[in-house]
Please model this.
Amino acid sequence: MTKPELPTPNQNPEQDNFLLRLRTKNTDSSSHAATVSSYASYWEADHKNGIENTDQTVAERRKGSDSLTNHFYDMVTDFYEYGWGQSFHFAPIYKDSTFTQCISRHEDFLALKLGLKPGMTCLDVGCGVGGPLREIAKFSGSKIVGLNNNEYQVKRCDFLANKYGMTRLCKAVKGNFEAMPFPDNHFDAAYAIEATCHARHLENPYGEVFRTLKPGSYFACYEWLTTEDYDESNLTHKRIIHALEEGNSIAKLYTIEQCLQAVKNVGFELVEYQDLADPRNPIVQSAQQPWQTPLKGSYKLSFDNLTNFTMNPLGRFITDKFVWGLEMVGFAPKGTRQVSQILNKGADALVEAGDLNLFTPMFFFLARKPLETEVVEH
Model:
């Protein structure tokens, strides 16, 4: 399924207000509607024929992953910032910490594992609008180069870096992480946060990271993967994961085993790895709430719950009805409600997958590119 290139919806990276962004998109509502329709078309066959056998549609989505993911982020970036913040990822939710603290700690953990310090240049693979990029630059003093194939997010990332006075350490580059626009042996370190799950095959971005890292340098990653509790032959499991994939622009999730093998296949030495969301981990059991808690919702009265109201089911329901009304009166572009419903479907599936431990959004690994004199056995 090869999709034609569509006009990019009108978007202004300098607008911080969610309503103004919707109004800007509505100045060319046909482009926005076409983007939403194109994204939805990748999933139509599964809805029509059932999910018992999705091999063909998975292959088609992987083949069209560039368009699939670009269309997705043109649709959802404004919703993400409004509902979640500027760091588009999950984190371990410690009981004594705010959501923002947990997000920042999760990012800073990578800087520590990579040994980042002033004078180093680090690659952020799939940088979104640069929330992690700016945090890691502030924490480590390193220069962070973000790579992103979505033009709107690249412009938004650079605008925010300038807004917050971070341009000396932060910049974004438009490019495909399966064919990076960087020379060999260029970066001192690299990381990816919940981004490479959009790749056709994990070996593609991992291989490009390997190529562009200097020998002896490290790559740290938080990967989206199915766990050993996921049973592909269980249709209930498959329905949940399929809905998660559709709501998050993933052709098909890989397993933990496939991820680790992909790291080795491209030449990396695996230094360490663990599922930071594993409910069997004693620290997860005793000190944390489940990673999906922000989406599942907690109605215990607290300042943190009030500030994160947009994440929980009631907040998402209100947002959905609100944007439906805006679309009906012609303020928001056609397809806005459909985007909201896609995201809500994905959020509900994430909660189900988390409750059953079918999926982890934070499988962590640290890998090292060997020195040229070293040989790694696979």
Q: What stands out?
A: The chain has a mean pLDDT of 94.
